[in-house]
Amino acid sequence: MLGVDALEVAYGEIRALRGVALEVGRGEIVALLGNNGAGKTTTLKTISGLLRPTRGTVTLDQEPLVGVPPHEIVSKGIAHVPEGRRIFNRLTVRENLVMGAYLRRDAAVADDLDRVFTLFPRLKERIGQVAGTLSGGEQQMLAIGRALMVGPRLLLLDEPSMGLAPVLVEQIFDTIADINRQGTTILLVEQNAAMALSIAHRGYVLETGTIALTGTAAELSDNAEVRRAYLGE
Questions:
Q1: Measured between alpha carbons, how far is 4 from 65 in angstroms, rounded to an integer?
Q2: Mind listing the pLDDT tens digit for each residue in 164-175?
Q3: With contact defined as beta carbons under 8 Å apart, do 88 and 131 qualify?
Q4: How many CB atoms lie within 10 A of CB 197?
Q5: Residue 190 belongs to what H/E stretch?
Q6: Which of 38, 44, 120, 233 has the smallest CB count inside 10 Å?
Q7: List of domains in the chain
Q8: Predicted TM-score (pTM) above 0.90
Q9: What is the C-alpha to C-alpha distance for residues 14 and 115, in angstroms, rounded to an integer?
């Protein structure tokens, strides 16, 4: 489904990505792990068109995406939940969700809104509330819900557990797994490697802009280097 090959991205003289290659198959959850500054967020931003690589390719179902404007990438079925949520603080919950469907003209928007409220009942309770007054967990639910209103084939999630209490982290990851079971493919960037690998099918480990390891979730969980560096063992 998603193919990334020989991807290089630079910020001025600093090479953030150096030959990154990865694949996400239809129906998978693929985890992208790594320390701060490894290039995880840069990878997602490049896939969604927010950054342009100096070299390499990004394809969705073999269709090239490099150079395609971000809003067109959204229209092709890729939705990006950025690090830090980036919701519209002055808009209500409903208005944020409707903004997620701004490119759509199909009749299924109302059904997708109901789907979001089924996944996140708290959002339905807060439907008229200004988004900036929500709790951190509720804002993360809203950010994911807004992305689902795109009707995505591929969902990019950047640090969905950041700043959340442990009980909310479990709830968010259970919901991510539900979203995948409902048919959405997911590329997941997450510092909480144990949680990420608990729901992922496969994973990649980024180190200083290059892919250092790859394998199934079970293989990475059992890897001594991964256990030491990312699982606290």
A1: 10
A2: 888 889 999 999
A3: yes
A4: 26
A5: none
A6: 233
A7: 2-77+152-230 (3.40.50.300), 86-149 (no CATH)
A8: yes
A9: 42
